Amino acid sequence: MILVTGISGNLGQAIFQYLKTHGADVTGGTRNHDGSAQTQTRTLDFDDPQTLALDDVSTLVFVSAGTAEDDVVIGRHQNLITAAEKAGVGHIIYTSLADHGDHLGFALAHRWTERRIQEGSIPWTILRNGLYAELIGQLLTPVDGVITAPFGNRGVAAIPRQDLAEAAANIALAPKKHAGQVYNLPGTRAITAKQVADRLGTDYRPQTMAGLRSSLDAAGLLPFQPDMLMSIHSAASYGFLEDTTDTITSLLNRAPLDPLIIAANSARQVG
Ligand SMILES: NC(=O)c1ccc[n+]([C@@H]2O[C@H](COP(=O)([O-])OP(=O)(O)OC[C@H]3O[C@@H](n4cnc5c(N)ncnc54)[C@H](OP(=O)(O)O)[C@@H]3O)[C@@H](O)[C@H]2O)c1
Question: What is the pLDDT of residues 134-143, one digit of tens each?
Answer without folding.
Answer: 999 999 999 9
